[in-house]
Amino acid sequence: MKSLFMAGASALILAGAVYLGTIRAERIHLGFALPADEELDIYQQVHKSASNGAPPAGFHPQIGAKVPGSVTLNSLPSDLTNRLPELRKYDYVTARNVVALVDPVTRNVVDVLIE
Fold this sequence. Notes:
Mean pLDDT: 75
CATH topology of the largest domain: Nuclear Transport Factor 2, Chain: A
Number of helices: 3
Low-confidence stretches: 9-28
CATH architecture of the largest domain: Roll
Shape: globular
CATH superfamily of the largest domain: inner membrane protein cigr
Order of helices and strands: HHEHEEE
């Protein structure tokens, strides 16, 4: 019984470490980690002023995805980039309830913000 409990606890710890490792790996694309409250603020500011239509067929806003050339990239609001200057080099796109930060040079999604 004790070994079964230990195996279960070990599995939970391992699953948590894998999950946290995934989050950390995703943030490496961005080059820095945004605190959760900043992510929420960015999402709310951008989402309220953006048109949130359906993404083009075949495009799924996820980290590493390439944004099609037919999708217009938008500049982040200046009040955000003044407060968080590391965001100046990124644009964004919205799709449904997602705000995706995009590297405008490569058109790759570097972070995905969901409320």
